[in-house]
Structures are given as C-alpha cells and as structure tokens.
Design goal:
The chain has 203 residues and is α/β, with parallel strands linked by helices. It has 6 helices and 8 strands; from the N terminus they run βαβαβαβαβααβββ. The protein has a 4-stranded parallel β-sheet, sandwiched between helices. It is globular and about 50 Å long.
C-alpha cells in the first residue's frame, strides 16, 4: 500500500523489536528494485535530521504522480519512535520545524505519520492539530486531563464522552482508547482497534 516506509528512532539499530520490521521493509524494497543503500532511499534513521530528505521525497513523488495523471498521491509511511525528548533539528518534537513540516506537508503529499511518545504535549500543538487519530493508554491522570481538555469540543467530542471512553478502554489490561477524529458520531471512540464504544452521553 505504501510506496516508501521510514522508521526514525533513536533505538533503530539497538532494539531487536525492529528486526522483523526491518527485514520486511528490505524485502519490499528489493522486490520493487529500491536501493536501501542509497542515502536518499535509506528507510532507517536514528534521529530527526533525515526529515527534510523524507519530506522532499514525498513531495517529489507526489508531483511525479500528478504529472503522470494519477488521481492519488503515492503513500509514504513514517514511524517516529522515541524521538520526542531534546531540542534541535536532530532530536525533540516540540520546537522542531522539520517535524511540523512533516505533519503539515503529509496532508497534501501522501504522508502517513505515526508518532509514539510518552508525552502528548512534547509534540508541537500545531502538529497535533494535523492528526486524524489518537491512541491513549492509561497515562498519568494529569497527562490525560491535558489531552481530554484539549480535545473537548473538537469535532463534536465532549469532555464527558472523552472521559467515559478513556475510562472504559483503559480498564482492560494493556487497553487503550483509539479516537478517530473525523469519524461520524458513534464511530469516534474505540477500545483498541476493534471494539466500538457506544457512549450514551450527548453532553
């Protein structure tokens, strides 16, 4: 489905959990004759300094698709993991212009961005506003209140609905609340990816 896949993580070369994913990406690229040793095509990065190259590649492929008369932009999946802390172009997501550009440009250039972070507010608010989905685990109450209060009123979600859905979804072991912002009423809140939460509150 995605023409290009990028993993950006400070532990990409250390965490064995990435090994299977990396092998799958290498296999995909080999089958599609994409050279993973080409610096412009390298899918694995340990800091955020690669984001300008990734964004420029997205834009280039989108323009090429438009020139060929394609009706849809080729998709690029970007996973950002364990990169929220710090500051500067290589680390940190709160004051990083390259991160903000990734989120804003993705909407128009076929970008599919997944950010894994332990702190919601470490992502720039302007970037947060570009999101279409959010997964929230059983975080500390103070963190959840920040998230809930920011989302309350957005796309018809009330504070009461958000609170009830989060309490229900996170009551299960390893459970998380999945929010689909743009879904119609009744389809926004999920326990995990598969169980729809029917919130009776209309407040």
């Amino acid at each position: 489905i995605c023409e290009r896949v990028y993993i950006v993580s400070t532990t990409i070369h250390l965490d064995k959990g990435y090994e299977h994913m990396k092998e799958l990406i290498k296999k995909k690229y080999k089958e599609e004759d994409v050279d993973v040793d080409d610096p412009q095509e390298n899918p694995f990065h340990d800091d955020l300094s690669a984001l300008p190259m990734i964004v420029n590649g997205m834009i280039k492929r989108t323009r090429e698709a438009q020139d060929q008369g394609d009706s849809h932009a080729p998709l690029t999946f970007v996973l950002l993991d364990d990169v929220a802390a710090g500051s500067g172009p290589a680390t940190g997501t709160r004051y990083n212009d390259d991160v903000l550009k990734l989120f804003t440009q993705s909407r128009h250039s076929g970008g599919v961005v997944a950010l894994l972070t332990q702190s919601y507010t470490l992502l720039n608010r302007s970037a947060r506003l570009q999101a279409t989905h959010l997964a929230v685990w059983a975080v500390q109450q103070t963190q959840w209140v920040q998230i809930r209060d920011e989302l309350a009123g957005r796309q018809g979600m009330s504070r009461e609905q958000l609170e009830g859905a989060w309490q229900t979804a996170t009551s299960r072991p390893h459970g998380f609340l999945w929010i689909s912002y743009n879904a119609p009423p009744g389809n926004k809140f999920w326990s995990g990816f598969t169980k729809k939460l029917l919130n009776s509150s209309n407040k």
